[in-house]
Amino acid sequence: MVRDTFTVIAEPTRRRILDELRTSERSVGELVTSLAVSQPTVSKHLKVLRDAGLVASRTAAQQRMYRVELAPLQMVQAWLEPYARLWTHHLDRLEQHLDKQEQS
Description:
Blueprint: H1 5-9, H2 12-21, E1 26-27, H3 28-35, H4 39-51, E2 55-60, E3 63-68, H5 70-103
Antiparallel strand pairs: 1-3, 2-3
């Protein structure tokens, strides 16, 4: 079942898994250790992430190694971009206001 990316990343444990996978591939065992959650919990969340296309895996000897897939996250970034511009605009205006306050 393909799930909405926003729904999938709304769950905190899944975001923690993505954070762990951001820097390098990890096995389920490594994720269990670094996240301090049970193996069944990690496996359950990895399945949801995999079904949503947010992670992919490969087999290395006896382990399955997981990595982040960027395409769904690029869609999230594209959706967030107008809001980032809005915040930048507001912060620029605040800076201008504060600069005027300093000059007064």
